Amino acid sequence: MSPLVSGPGVPDDLLRAFEAYEAAVLADDLPVLSESFAPGDDALRGDGAGVLVGHDAITRFRAGRGGVPPRDLVEVHHRPLGDDAALLVSVSAFRAGGRGLQTQLWERVEGRWVITAAHVTPRPQALDRTVWRCVGDPLVHGAGSGPLAGLSVAVKDLFAVAGFRTGAGNPTHLAGAAVETTSAAAVADLLRGGADLRGIARTDELAYGLAGDNAHYGTPPNGAVPGALPGGSSSGPASAVAAGQAEVGLATDTAGSVRVPASYQGLWGLRTTHGRVGTSGMLPLAPSFDTAGWITRSGEVLQRVVDHCLPDGGVEVPPRLAVPSALLACADETTRAAFESWLAAVSNAPGAPAVDRVELPGPSPAECAAAFRTVQGAEARRAHGAWVAEHPGALGPAVAARFRAAEAVTPEQEAAAREVLARVRAALEAATATAVLVWPTAPGAAPGRGHPARTDPALGDQLRAALLAMTTPVSASGLPALSVPLLALDQQTGPAPVGVCLVGPRGSDAALVALGRRLADLPTTRSEPQTLEGP
Question: Which residues is 132 bridged to in the sheet?
């Protein structure tokens, strides 16, 4: 490598440290990569997604990212900045084509060279394949005029798009799918309104997930928190919208797949009233809960979409807010503090609705989540069990495990679980007759890709259960729910968003968005960043 280095003489120990780092990158040698960055909170690593601050944040990111494609260094430029500091700028040629660049500030700390700041410029890509399955400029033209003219749409890969196959986040499913002759009703509606279809975006396999990772295509970036999970299963549309590559994400929400990625990435996300948006041409997961919805960066764009796609207006929302204590208790301590701060600001804002606390009768959030998982599993098995059995090994480990659990659900267990969900539905319908229910959308900010739960199945199941406890009561009720980006938690990478979930009466979708916009526009009602506790 040394003949490639230009500039004043490179210290031998710096060159050895650089070579060890580069070899570790290619081998995905996590211990060496961790040791290569300076300890403590001063190390920086940046790329197009943002900046990671501190050794621990960089190490967690590395653990969740995986290695880089094979490449060769073709240039290394050295500029000394003192006896114990140097700048290295290197150019990589990838063996599959394309070039990338990395800029590193190396410093000698306690006798050894470590990276204190790095910026990575990856090779240009026609599209990010973790986000998009196929994309165009646009992929499909809309009507050319109408209330949605000028908007581009990222369509989750569960909706039929005429002339394309539906992949459902799985390459085996994609390979066996027929080319669609008719677009799904929800797609056609947006095209009629004048929106263009930018592309077909990724989903967790068969929409059976909430994290946003995909065993076959990778994990889309989180547009708000570098190195964090994007949220799923509508991960692709959400990431495309957060990155500014589309204005609207057409998504589905069964257990929270619109609300969770919206919360994790600081977006607006509407789960529509169950059955209000046509599901023809939409691949099912659990039809009792499957709903279409939209993800946007602003309330104004979401209102345009709702007003066009739900033109009858629907019903109004009650003039007060109510916080279900049991659902708020499911959030972590930092999120509860941010939410209480936001509530206090709402209570003091002129013209804001009154806020009460309520105790919902019936099953607890945890009991609702358990019953929901039973019924969802039974319905997912009916929808896809035959295909799963015919294609052994086609699913990633996490989704395969969910289908194995679904196979064990008995008719008696499903019937008992449906009774639990009916009680949840009755409780929420009664409560929303007099108030809009409000609580944090998720237990906390998006977990990092290197979070311990990613490798510890028991911890991962605990986090998923906590998330489902906060999302599944709405899914069981069939009521509309809106996630509004109103909370912020302090992280080393900067404020991390958490949504505030608003739940209204059946058919109040448009009014719920209007209420969310009013709350977002109230003076001082966005929470100040709250310090995160723990990893």
Answer: 201
**Residue 87 backbone zone (phi > 0: left; psi -120 to 50: alpha; other: beta):** beta
pLDDT band at 51 (very low <50, low <70, confident <90, very high): confident
DSSP state of 145: S
> What local confidence, expressed as pLDDT, does residue 535 receive?
32
Question: Average pLDDT, stretch 300-305?
Answer: 98
Give the whole-angstrom CA distance, residue 279 versus residue 273.
12
User: Helix 299-309 and helix 509-521: axis angle, to 10°?
Assistant: 160
270 Cβ contact partners less than 8 Å away, ≥ 6 residues apart: 258, 293, 294, 295, 302, 306, 480, 481, 482, 483, 509, 512, 513
- CA 115, CA 296: separation in Å to the nearest integer? 38
Q: Which amino acid is at 82?
A: G
Q: How far apart are the first and last CA of the chain?
A: 38
**241 and 247 Cβ atoms separated by less than 8 Å:** yes
Secondary structure in 3-state letters for 304-338:
HHHHHHCCCCCCCCCCEEEEEHHHHCCCCHHHHHH
Owner of token pair 């941010």 = 338
Confidence of residue 313 (pLDDT cuts 50, 70, 90): confident
Q: Are the beta carbons of 120 and 91 closer than 8 angstroms? A: no
Q: How far is CA 216 from CA 16, 159, 325, 400, in A?
A: 36, 19, 40, 13
**Confidence grade of residue 242 (pLDDT, cut at 50, 70, 90):** very high
**Residue 130 structure tokens:** 């973790």
Q: Which domains does the chain have, with CATH numbers?
A: 2-121 (3.10.450.50), 128-360+420-535 (3.90.1300.10)
pTM of the prediction?
0.87
SS (H, E, C) 213-272: CECCCECCCCCCCCCECCCCCCHHHHHHHHCCCCCEEEEEECCCCCHHHHHHHCCEEEEC
Q: Which residue has the higher pLDDT, 451 or 211?
A: 211
Structure tokens at 260: 């969770």
